[in-house]
Amino acid sequence: MSSTFDLNERPDYDEVLQKIADYVLTYEITSEEAWNTARYCLMDTLGCGLLALRFPECTKHLGPIVEGTTVPHGARVPGTPYRLDPVKAAWDIGCIVRWLDYNDTWLAAEWGHPSDNLGAILAVADHLSQKRVAEGKDPFKVKDLLEAMIMAHEIQGVLALENSFNRVGLDHVVLVKVASTAVAAKLMGANRQQMLSALSHAWVDGQSLRTYRHAPNAGSRKSWAAGDATSRAVRLADIAMRGEMGIPGVLTAPQWGFYDVLFSKTNKDQKLKPEGQREFSISQEFGSYVMENILFKVSFPAEFHAQTAAEAAVTLHPQVRDRLDSIDRIVITTHESAIRIISKVGKLANAADRDHCLQYMTAVPLIFGNLTADHYEDSFHEANPLIDVLRDRMEVVEEERYTREYLEADKRSIANAVQVFFSDGTSTEKVEVEYPLGHRRRRDEAISELRSKFHRNLGACFPQARSLALLELFEDQGKLEQTNVANFVTEFAR
Questions:
Q1: Is pLDDT of 299 > 90?
Q2: Dist. CA 115–CA 100, nearest whole Å
Q3: For the chain, is the Cβ count within 10 Å smaller at the N or the C terminus?
Q4: How far does Cα 73 stand from its chain's mean position?
Q5: Quick one: which of 346, 312, 297, 251 has its CA closest to 434?
Q6: How far is the CA of 131 from the CAs of 75, 135, 162, 237, 294, in angstroms?
Q7: Over 70: is that where the pLDDT of 308 sits?
């Protein structure tokens, strides 16, 4: 080819985009486990959003951009009086869901929180349901919400299995945007071309950097980044539904495509990856695997790589609570991913910094026997200098088996062990927890706790009678699935 011109032959849409589009438009979900788990996922996600409303740093972001704006058939933000256009509603819902780092988690080559996608799903479904009712049409049912959640979980999670975005410096909310774009477009009634166009625009966007998740720049953007992604997804789906053309070679275009621009170099040394690693690897077909295997945060509002460390620390609390002043050192044995994302020393500047610090999330339960959202606040940290004293006495070591089994498909453990050594030469036993409560291997054990968590979170916003009625609704799969979305969201409005 001449160096003075490009061959202008427009390609077909990239294969990855076609796989996603065909999955969303044609796949029938038959897994009863997926449907049942999605019910618990919806319950838990809404509860996490309601709990976040206790925190002014979260609520300051909510509501219309222009005060007093009235939106016909506006999407509701649970626990608030707001009725917003679906783009801003997606932002707000995604923000409250994610604020406390207490919603579900997916851990693979890439990490993430697939229930973040509820921001887009609920906003679009509520708005369109109200509009349909006004036009004399049938609204969406909650079953449509659950289907969209299963599919969004699957898209985000399968793309994350073997593709690490953090290793090229990108934040995992890129997968939230892609998954939310797909299911939002489906709810809007997209055909295949509209779906492909929407997905291409999600990939061509400049993507979020991980800067705000890592020392020394960790901050509260990590708590609204997913809301921002779901909001953008709704906007892009709407643009595509208006007939906007797509970018078919968005991933594979030489020089200008996502692979060459954003996926070809390693993050740390900026070296080119081996050629075969400069594009996505999709190791399995899209189905319902991710929802079936999703990890619930049951015990602690803590970054998931630290869940088992916090549980081990709670176990050790009775043995150390009367000997805190004589602790010589604390050894945390962990896996490589935890070291890479949450192991840090030095001053912790804010709540977001603390809930992404392995040492902090181990020290607090060692001292107090528990770890709650309030434990990350500035006032609590300042009032308890012993936390930082213990952090300074911690050693973090990698266990190769933990690192290996973290990625093994039949295990996917998130193991940590904690052992405390005292100045008199004695020590506690080494407490090891390989699978956190909420892991599929401990799912049965977790369900009652998940219900209790939801009930507590409802109590942050609603009186007891209303809380019990909502809890009862979620107990009946069939009744829940057939509830009109507009009526369902009304139950969570204030």
A1: no
A2: 13
A3: N
A4: 28
A5: 312
A6: 10, 6, 40, 18, 33
A7: yes
